[in-house]
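Today's session is about reading a structure prediction critically. Students often jump straight to the picture, but the first step is always the sequence itself: look for stretches that repeat, for charged clusters, for runs of hydrophobic residues. Only then move on to the predicted structure, which in these notes is written as discrete structure tokens rather than atom positions. Here is the chain we will use throughout the hour.
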Amino acid sequence: MSGVRTIDGRDLQPPEPLERALEALDTLAADEELVLLLYCQPQPLFNILRTNGFRWQETIQDDGTHEIRITKA
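Below is the predicted structure for this chain, in token form.
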């Protein structure tokens, strides 16, 4: 894995976290990972990822943060 980009969307108002994530995905290299931190499960994003061939893994931290790690399939 060449690099990790993190977007902390926990203090952002919708739709800014989704917009930032989509911008980052447009330039995500094959050996990069995008980490998105949110206080909710972003179903619209999951649908976009599924449609466009990305893989993701979601874990929920003790403080309620959803950590979503996204890579190209």
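Discussion point for the tutorial: The chain has one domain: 3-72.
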